[in-house]
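## retry 2 of 3
previous attempt timed out at serialization; input unchanged, resubmitting
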Amino acid sequence: MKIEFKWVKAHIRIYGNEIADRLAKEATENYHVTYSMIPKDTQKESTRKWRSQWEETMKGTITKEFFPSVESRLAVNLNLSPNVTTIMTDHGNI
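## retry succeeded, writing output
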């Protein structure tokens, strides 16, 4: 999986940039962050990429037992914690 970060010059209005900045700041200050303000087109594109990677990867066997598809994961409102993540990924000492 390739992750790209791009520098965006401040003071330039780029669609969604203010929302991304606010969410990033919330993520550093709060344990629980709500992403309901992400623009719908961004959500759809992110879900499409996630689905593609989910279907192509050979990794995540244990997690796929809990959630065989991206849609099955999105249908569940999870209160994630380190313990829940450890159980669902089978990484850790539980």
